[in-house]
Every structure is written in C-alpha cells, then in structure tokens.
Amino acid sequence: MIDTVRGTAERIIDVVPLVMRSIRAKLHELRAADINVHQFRAMLYINRNHGTSLSDVAAHVGVSLPTMSVLIDKLVDRKLVSRDARGGEEDRRKMCLFLTLQGQEELNVAYDFAQKFLMVKMSRLSKEELKTISQAMQILQDLFVLSPEK
C-alpha cells in the first residue's frame, strides 16, 4: 500500500507541473489576452469566489501577499479586476475582489484557448483513457477539496 501511495504521489508531483508548463507555454503564445499564468489563475479564482480577499487569492496561486498585491494592482490598472471596500474601509487588505466585464471577457478568451489546447492534446486518447483521466481528476478534486491540508 505504501509503495502504491508513494508511487502515485511521485506521479502527481511529476505530471502536474508538466501539464501546467504546457498550459503556461500556450498562454504565453496568446498575446491577444495578454494574461500570464499567475494572472490567469488569480482571475479564475476571483471569478469562482466573488468578493474574495487578496490573501485568499495569494494562497490559492501560491505567491506572497506583496507579489499578489502587485499582480492585482496591474489587473486593476488594466480594468480587469475591481476592488470594493468591506464596510467602507480603505484598508486594501480588506478589499473584496471582483472581475470586471472586461476581465471576464479576457479570462474567457484565455480559458477557451487553454481548453482548446488541452482538447487537441487529448484528442489522441481513447474514450477509455479519457474516462480514466476524468475519474482520476474527480478523485483528486474530492480529496483536496474535502481535506485540503491533510
């Protein structure tokens, strides 16, 4: 059992970065949206978690608060993200983050581009292989959503 768990953990550690690197390279090709991977992941998180905080986005993307603050400042300057104060406070750490309409449009362009890239890549797989991958992704999602720290 331990060998199976260890081997599976090693595969995840090896494979997930390969997938993300491929997506990153593809997004880099897309200059129309001009969104890098950290911005893409931040915008996806904000889109799925309306009114989220800067610290929550930083934790999700895996960068420091100062790094995320600079990233969000750039997205706000480009009118892709808006900040709204909680309770009228001016403290930026207590701001709620939302995608603007323009942000939603640019995110959709980048998301569709990444999705089409993955679809082309996976079109070589059999229906059974696709089903296996989908089942594995669901298992991982359930595992990390239900007990993310354990």
Can you offer a commentary on this structure?
- This protein is mainly alpha-helical and 150 residues long.
- The protein has a single domain (2-146), classed as Winged helix-like DNA-binding domain superfamily/Winged helix DNA-binding domain (Arc Repressor Mutant, subunit A, Orthogonal Bundle), CATH 1.10.10.
- It is built from six helices and two strands.
- It has helices at 2-29, 37-48, 54-61, 65-77, 101-122, 127-146; strands at 81-85, 95-99.
- Strands 1-2 form a two-stranded antiparallel sheet.
- Helix 2 (37-48) packs across helix 3 (54-61), helix 2 (37-48) crosses helix 5 and helix 3 crosses helix 4.
- The longest helix has 28 residues, at 2-29.
- The two termini are 18 Å apart.
- The mean pLDDT is 88.
- Number of domains as seen in the coordinates: 1
Kindly provide the radius of gyration, computed on alpha-carbon positions and rounded to a whole number of angstroms: 18 Å
Number of strands: 2
| Main β sheet profile | 2 strands, antiparallel
Structural class: mainly alpha
How much of the sequence lies in strands comes to: 5-15%
Average per-residue pLDDT, rounded, comes to 88
Q: Can you list the strand order of the major beta sheet?
A: 1-2
Distance between the amino and carboxyl termini: 18 Å
Percent of residues in helices: 55-70%
What's the name of the CATH homologous superfamily?
Winged helix-like DNA-binding domain superfamily/Winged helix DNA-binding domain
Question: Which fold does the CATH topology refer to?
Answer: Arc Repressor Mutant, subunit A
